[in-house]
Structures are given as C-alpha cells and as structure tokens.
Amino acid sequence: MIKAGIIGSTGYAGQELVRLLLQHPETEIVWYGSRSYIDQQYADVYRNMFRLVDAKCLDDNMEELAKAADVVFTATPQGLCASLVNENILSQTKIIDLSADFRIKDVKVYEKWYGLEHKSPEFIPEAVYGLCEINREDVKKARLVANPGCYTTCSILTMYPLVKEGLVDPHSIIIDAKSGTSGAGRGAKLPNLFCEVNESIKPYGVTNHRHTPEIEEQLGYAAGEPILINFTPHLVPMNRGILATEYASLKDGVTEAMVQAAYEKYYKNEYFIRLLGSGVYPETRWVEGSNFVDIGYKIDERTCRIVAMGAIDNLVKGAAGQAVQNMNLLFGLPENTGLKLVPMFP
Predict the structure, then answer these.
(1) Which residues are catalytically annotated?
(2) Between the chain's N and C termini, which has fewer beta carbons within 10 Å?
(3) Which pTM was predicted?
C-alpha cells in the first residue's frame, strides 16, 4: 500500500484528496494535516467523513511526515510548500504540490505574480509540471511534482493540440473562463458570501490573474516560442466546475479535418479526455465529480477563427483528481486507478 500524507487536508482540495484516496485500492492515508484544526477529529471538520475517517488532524511537520509517508500532498496556500521542502525530505518521500510554488520555471516571474519570495528556488529546475497527458513520462521519474492549477489545466488542454500542431497563431489566443466558488478555497471572504455571489457573475483578475504566466509558459513550450495571451476568469454562482472558452486565429489553409485530426492525435487514447467534436459543446454539469475533461470546438469561417471549449471539475481534474493521477504515475499504477468516477447528475 502507498502511504499518503496530506498537508492542508481541511481545505476544499484537501478534503477532495481525502475523498478520492479513501476509495483508492492501493493507498492508505497516514497523515491528515491541518494547521487550523490540530488535534480535532477530521470527521468533526467534515461530517461527510463520519465513520469513514477515525483520525485527528495533525500539524504540518514535514520532517516527521516524510518518514511516515511514501508521498506527501501539499494542498496549501502559495509559499508554504517551498518553505518546507529540502533535500533531506525529497530523499525520503515524493511530493505532489497543489500550490503554484514549483509550476513556473522562472523564479522572478513567480515572485512578481504571486508577490512572494521563493524559499527554495533550487528545486524549481527539477520539479515536473504534472499535466499528465502532456508530461506523463517526466512525471514517472519525478521526486517533486507541481500539480497544475484548475484554470490552467482546462485552458492548456483545450488549446494544446492546436498550438502544438501549428494550426493557430499562438499570439492571438484569448481565454474567457468561468469557475464555481469552490475555486476560491474554504476561507471566509466577503466577496464569496452567498449574497455576494448568488444571482450574479463577475470577472476578476482582469489582465493580471496569476494563472496567466502558467498558461503562457506551457503553451509557449508547445508553440516553441514565448507567447502572450489574454486570460479573463469569471466567478459564477455554482459549487464546482470550470468552463473555458478560447479564441484563436487559424493559420491559412487550416481545415476542420486538420483540427479534428490534431485533437485525435494527442487525445484519442487519453482516458480522461473526452473529445466532443465540432459543434458539440461541453457543459460543467457533465463532468461534475469526475476527472474528465470534455473538449469541443467550432470554426468560424467568417472570421477565420476557432472557438475551442473545455470543461472540468475544478476540485477533481483541476486539483485533487489530477494529484492522484500523478501519484498513480509515480508509483507505476494504471493512471485511472481510483479515478473511474462517473460524473454526478443532477
């Protein structure tokens, strides 16, 4: 059995990790870490775990955790994992970090967009960006996996084949994305109160959302050159889900058959990516509670642009599910082990 520890187990992503790992046939959770609830029963924090978890919340002692666990998940705010990791820890256990601490290769870019001094930049070069469908072979050999963000997972996977195959002008990409409120975390914040969110939709982080450089970096690798994009997220009054609608100019001579062939080339055999094809559009309700990514598109012949659309559950494929997918790769398990989750509806 894989012994797993979680730091930040009482946040939304951390609780989702617990839910998934409890159902994983090859994993045992040995550490429920939470600074806010030390010594409290985990099931008292999340009553859905009543009679399922008989354990108290522990602290974030990474040194002790590294001795007890084969893999450590850090579902924590930005900066914490970087402040805890060191060579001794990485020599004893594998780390899957759900924060942004090791996602961006240029430490100056990270510090600019996140407003933090990086505490362990020496580990950035070896960290593998854990977007499994793209970096699968690198993940298998990693000690430190940077689990991608929710907006970035949806945005990158939706556009990646088109950029990689050179079918679109990568500098023309505009991404309009919508997220449920769980993406903001469990902390009490005035803008996320029911009366503030219900019956409304609002953009935020316009031109400066911190997932922007992550998307640019990864799509830039696909394009073979640095790129700039416009990325605008929106908050919508639902619990879960992300829908990304992405626009790009097609290069001369690109046909619908070429677009479909590109998607099939990269994703036809991917268990977690469901290609809807042209004119069929994804909806968040059809992926809720699952690790699936639904992708559809429509070519606008009048403007010579493509509208590509992707949908995910932000807490599963956008966080905890992807982390478990990375764990499966790290330990040589079938990638979908413990993740054959049928989407919930209604």
Answers:
(1) 150
(2) C
(3) 0.96
